[in-house]
Amino acid sequence: MLDDKTINIVQSTAPVLKEHSKEIGKRFYKLLFEKAPDLLNIFNQTNQKRGLQQEALGYAVYAAGEYITNLDAIKPVIERISQKHRAIGIKPEQYPVVGETLLQAVKDVLGDNATDEIIEAWGKAYGYISDAFISLEKKFYEESEQQPGGWEGYRTFYVDKKVKESDEVTSFYLKSKDGEAISSYKAGQYLTIRAEIPGEQYTHIRHYSLSEAPGKDYYRISVKREDEHGNSPDGIVSNYLHDQIQSGDTLQFSAPAGDFVIRKDNVPIVLISGGIGITPLLSMLNTIAEEKLSRQVTFIHATSNSKTHAFREHVKELENNFDYLKSYVCYNSPTVEDKKAKNYDKEGHIDLNFLQSLLPTKEADFYFCGSIPFMEAIIKALNEWEVPKEHIHYEVFRPVAMLGEEDMNL
Question: Domain 269-408 is of which CATH architecture?
Answer without folding.
Answer: 3-Layer(aba) Sandwich (3.40)
